[in-house]
Design brief:
alpha+beta; D-amino Acid Aminotransferase, Chain A, domain 1; four-stranded parallel β-sheet; 13 helices; 19 strands
């Protein structure tokens, strides 16, 4: 995209964001307090009348200064999924102290509320949620309905079966689908949102009864699919009013435990990276999948905004496993590479039907070009050990690790130094090395990790 076109697109994006913010009281609700300064900077730039943070927890990283009023809900949980569910519930029925703090900031309850994209309240204490997620959009994140959606979008996928939690039915499904490396079970959303692999397990043929009971405590049914060796990855798009924009592939850093480890069935979600490059034909295939999915989201549920398609780059090519009609964490590369575009805010603007001046073709060009030109990554681990302060450590040759308070103990975030790492290969082996060094040198209780295997 030429410089004049870029400048014009940035100007139109800024005008749309400003129209949504200027002169309004804005509540940032359900986020971690740490790391909110980019949002606060945008709100101040666009002349928000006042800003209030209703945070779920403090989190890890730099905090806003005391000029930003805030109330911290103090949400905790054994997993990130637990924290997200508890936050969503808290925003739907605020405790009295949070309600009092919010009412002092916004006594006439006219503030505009912005929540993280994985939360789904339609209002917070009577205040409009801007860019709220419609229930029919949220429903498509259920992994037991994803494959039927892919079929409707004419997307090639791995075979699967959706099975009730019944040992006999599960045995029959496993007999049909196990290709010798076990099967992967993904739970439904009976208990609400889940992510980060919290309700996904690799199940071997002799473990069916054990995992039937474990899932039955949390779900009504599971999707059973073959275990697919390959690089976990994601592709993103953006449904605009005129068409669908699709972006570049991203590696999802999904690690495992060794075969002799007692937690070998769990997938360890550890962030994402744009350092990985699939083969050109695989990249094209992923982009085609993203386009088909975006078109189906538009036609089936009148979707607008960003979305993600996650899957595995197998020996047979890309095989999608889930669709998330929301802004995904891996799109952090767009903020890092084209911050003036304010893609995260444009996502909310698009949901509200207020993005008429930006076309899919130009959005696709600027995000894809920038993502290819400047690489980015953010790998992370949640650890059980307690932590009260944030600290930063260099990992020579790879990047730096920030350690601080997490959901149920410690959060460790690895930021790769992309100037030191040649793009192309999977980033996961370097992430494994970095966390092993952190365990050795800093005493982090990470445990043994194994990266996924590239097969193409």
């Amino acid at each position: 995209m030429d410089p004049d076109a870029r400048a014009d697109l940035f100007a139109r994006s800024a005008a749309l964001c400003r129209a949504a913010i200027a002169g309004r009281r804005i509540v940032l609700a359900g986020h971690h307090l740490a790391g909110l300064m980019p949002w606060i900077d945008v709100l101040r730039r666009d002349d928000a009348a006042a800003i209030f943070v209703l945070a779920c927890a403090v989190g890890t990283g730099p905090l806003p200064d005391d000029s930003v009023p805030r109330h911290v809900l103090g949400i905790t949980g054994a997993t990130r999924t637990d924290e997200i569910r508890a936050t969503d519930q808290a925003l739907r029925s605020l405790p009295d102290d949070a309600l009092d703090a919010l009412d002092r900031f916004d006594p006439d309850r006219t503030a505009r509320v912005i929540v993280p994209p994985y939360l789904s309240p339609l209002d917070v204490a009577g205040r409009e949620v801007y860019g709220a997620r419609r229930p029919d959009w949220v429903a498509l994140e259920d992994k037991t309905v994803a494959d039927a959606f892919f079929d409707r979008a004419s997307v090639i996928r791995a075979p699967s079966a959706v099975v009730p939690l019944d040992v006999g039915a599960l045995r029959r499904a496993v007999e049909l689908l196990d290709e010798g490396e076990g099967t992967v079970w993904s739970g439904d959303v009976r208990g609400g949102f889940h992510g980060g692999g919290d309700l996904v397990r690799r199940v071997r043929a002799d473990e069916i009864e054990r995992w039937n009971q474990w899932f039955a405590d949390r779900c009504d049914r599971v999707r059973v699919a073959p275990f697919l060796e390959g690089i976990p990855c994601s592709i993103h798009g953006f449904v605009c009013d005129d068409d669908v924009a699709v972006f570049r592939p991203m590696e999802m850093v999904i690690l495992r435990r060794p075969e002799d480890h007692p937690d070998r069935s769990r997938f360890v979600y550890a962030g994402m990276s744009s350092l990985w490059d699939p083969q050109p034909e695989d990249r094209d295939a992923m982009r085609d999948v993203a386009r088909r999915v975006g078109q189906r989201l538009r036609d089936e549920v009148t979707y607008r905004g960003t979305y993600t398609v996650d899957g595995i780059m197998t020996i047979d090519g890309f095989r999608p496993t889930e669709v998330n009609p929301r802004f995904g964490g891996a799109l952090g590369y767009a903020h890092a590479t084209v911050p003036k575009l304010a893609l995260a805010m444009l996502h909310y603007v698009a949901i509200e039907g207020e993005m008429h001046t930006i076309r899919a073709k130009e959005l696709e060009a600027i995000v894809t070009e920038a993502g290819d030109a400047t690489r980015w990554g953010s790998s992370n681990m949640f650890l059980a050990a307690p932590c009260s302060e944030t600290s930063v450590y260099d990992i020579p040759g790879i990047g730096r690790i920030t350690i601080g308070p997490g959901v149920a103990g410690t959060f460790a975030r690895l930021e790769p130094d992309v100037s030191l790492i040649a793009p192309g290969p999977s980033f996961a082996p370097l992430a494994v090395e970095a966390f092993a060094r952190a365990e050795r040198d800093l005493g982090l209780a990470v445990g043994p990790l194994v990266p996924a295997m590239s097969v193409r």
